[in-house]
Amino acid sequence: MIPERWLTFAVLVGLLAVALGALVMDRPFTITLATRATILALAAVGLNIALGQGGLVSFGHAAFFGIGGYAMGILAHHAQTFTPLELGPLTITGTKSMPVIWLTAVVASALAALLIGLLALRTSGVYFIMITLAFGQMFFYFAISWSAYGGEDGLSIYVRNDFPGLNTLDPIQFFGLCFTLLCLVLLFAGRLMRSPFGLALNAARQAPERVETVGLDPMRLRLLAFVLSGAVTGLAGALFADLNRFVSPAMFSWQLSGELIVLVILGGVARLIGPVVGAIAFVTLEHVLGDVTEFWLIWLGVALLLVVLFARGGIVGLVARRGHG
Amino acid sequence: MSAILIIEQVLNGLQFGVMLFLMAAGLTLIFGVMGLINLAHGSLYMIGAFAAAAVAGATGSFLLALAAAMAAAAAAGALVELTVIRRLYAADHLDQVLATFALILIFSEGTRWIFGSFPLYLDVPAALSGPVTLPGGIDYPRYRLALIGAGLAVAVGLWALTQHTRIGIRIRAGENDREMIAALGVDIGRLYTLVFALGAALAGLAGALVGAIQSVQVGMGEPVLILAFVVIVIGGIGSIKGAFIGALLVGLTDTLGGIFLPEFFKLFMEPGAATQTGASLASMAIYILMGLVLIWRPTGLFGARA
């Protein structure tokens, strides 16, 4: 067993090494896979704030992932077609600038998380799971019926959006961008875990009555956690859309919500690096098993069953002892 | 907008509602008795539909197909209860969600493996095909009317089963105090397997019945499963009566919303925009209904526990 902090460091260095190695060996596809893992990791780190820290089993995080994706899709679509976006009295021109898109994605998904959270957090347990699942599905059907932005077919964005000073179409530069964001968010999530808010949130998960008696409102703690969680997942959604240069209702699908939970659990719930390990394992499995058999999801299902029934704590739980990351 | 159209749509909504009830009743029974959230319930629906399509294709008999659907789904349900689900009763909801999500992956891809990715078709039986003329001169598909009848019959049967039979008494006792009825000599393990198989059979029946008016394909169960969740959130988890009322509410809201919301917006918007807005809003109508019920009653209309 190794300390968790070392593992965090080793995993991030490993991910970076894979991308740089692929650059040296001129394998752009491997860089794209590493980017995919990085973005999924970011989405799962977001989910882990609610799931791991807050104990909120959200089965609707695809909603935020999709909102982030559509924030990118809509802004870039208006920029590439040179049509202004009419929002009632407000007229906005589209944009291809990543920082603006990221900010929009974060704000939009945080707002959605606030609304869903206000309703869903009135309940707990199984109700919460089903309600988040249902709201996720609501966004899915809304996206399908919203023909102005492609409806069922989705939206294609021809050129990847811009970041000042970088050529984002170069795989390694885009990877670097995503990787930097992942590191920053991990730093933020790690700080959050040890902050008074994070400690109170953890306590609210384990003993809500006690938290109430010391004068804190568990509801507000959970709501803030849910909003932060949704915002991070929304940012990942914007990056994912940029990676594929395509958004579609599939980003809102319940399968994606399920997969995000799987990433967190596979890696290790409530461990800082858990979701990253889970995402890397998932993308690797998908790629390796996907080459062997068309039905690789069966084996993912079997692996998942084994983890749930026999290996609680996930991969990180097997490898590293709990410590301050 | 004529009266005939409205009556037709109300019947469609009822038909959709009673089929949702078959799914929701099983889910809510399983949750009520075992405290388990079963995401794989949609897979049992799919298994029922595939079994029915396969048997109907081989024998040409719709009744045999229905029996096969219920038997296959019940057998699959009993099998997963004995091998996997049994270990999850004491686990927290997160573990239940994950394990049953894993079962979805295994069932869906397994079915794709066996039957391929192309949809199968299950024909409406000849005796029930074609329209029937209702009082008032409304032509309505005979099969859909039969679905409403079958759903209502199952609802009555479930009510009689839980209220008036020994097994029903045990099920209700299991909901209230499982240690006590185990102490009284009821084999609680067998009761659980039985309840799970019963819920599975209902899901399989729904899959087969609906499979005759839609295509039978992998992934057909999950959208229905999520709607069934909406139903039991509205009705209150663990309550069969709640599942019934919730299912009809959801069925009617979804069907009527799709027809009336675009018409409603046409009153004050131009037709193109009205259709668009109405369709978008209609796709969200049942979730808005769910939100409103939650604000009013966080544990659902007939739910006792949170």
UniProtKB/TrEMBL annotation, chain A:
Primary site of residence: membrane
Keyword Transmembrane set for record: yes
Keywords: Cell membrane, Membrane, Transmembrane, Transmembrane helix
Chain segments annotated as transmembrane: 31-50, 62-80, 100-121, 128-151, 171-189, 223-241, 261-285, 297-320
Topological type in the membrane: Multi-pass membrane protein
Entries under CDD domains matching the protein: TM_PBP1_LivM_like
GO MF annotation list: branched-chain amino acid transmembrane transporter activity
One GO CC annotation: plasma membrane
Domain of life of the source: Bacteria
Subcellular location per the Swiss-Prot or TrEMBL entry: Cell membrane
Protein name in the entry: Branched-chain amino acid ABC transporter permease
Organism whose genome encodes this protein: Histidinibacterium lentulum
UniProtKB/TrEMBL annotation, chain B:
Family, as annotated: Belongs to the binding-protein-dependent transport system permease family. LivHM subfamily.
GO BP, sorted A to Z: amino acid transport
UniProt GO MF annotations: transmembrane transporter activity
Keywords: Amino-acid transport, Cell membrane, Membrane, Transmembrane, Transmembrane helix, Transport
Protein name: Branched-chain amino acid ABC transporter permease
Electron transport found in the keyword field: no
Organism: Histidinibacterium lentulum
Major subcellular location class: membrane
Transmembrane segments: 16-37, 44-60, 66-85, 97-122, 142-162, 191-213, 225-252, 273-296
Origin organism lineage: Bacteria, Pseudomonadati, Pseudomonadota, Alphaproteobacteria, Rhodobacterales
Record-linked InterPro entries: ABC_transp_permease (IPR001851), BCAA_transport_permease (IPR052157)
Bilayer topology term: Multi-pass membrane protein
Single GO cellular component term: plasma membrane
Pfam family, one: BPD_transp_2
Cellular compartment(s): Cell membrane
Top-level division of the source organism's lineage: Bacteria
